[in-house]
Amino acid sequence: MIGKLNHVAIAVNDLDAAAALYRDTLGATVSGAVPQPDHGVTTVFVELANTKIELLAPLGDGSPLAAFLDKNKSGGIHHICYEVKDIYAARDKLVKQGLRILGSGDPVPGAHGNLILFLHPKDFCGTLIELEQQP
Ligand code: CO
After folding, report:
1. Which of 50, 84, 88, 109 lies 20 to 30 Å from 117, alpha-carbon distance?
2. What are the backbone dihedrals phi and psi of residue 111, each rounded to the nearest 5 degrees, phi first?
3. What is the average pLDDT across 53-61?
4. How far is the CA of 25 from the centre of ligand 1 (A)?
């Protein structure tokens, strides 16, 4: 069901500092910062040859990242994203197997406009999993 690793997301306190670290210290290609108000985060994408790193900082009050950064003061790996061809078929199959989808349970547009959903970390070895449908 899952395809390629689309990205690994890292929660950070200082997005500019994190972007500079990847750009200037590691020599990576780094996107500009894009506010994602629907998700309560601002994102920067680091482009690698085989995948991406998504740097995430909290945006606005009640950001879903606030509690994570409270527990992980220096930031840390927040989620990993796998590609799927048909996110509704994937969702239905997972739900049928008793796994939990976060939020309403329906896919929503993610950082690239592709449909995404998140799976409960307690069902996946303590790791928050994002599924992203590829066009
Ligand atoms: Co993501």
Report:
1. 50
2. -60, -25
3. 95
4. 23
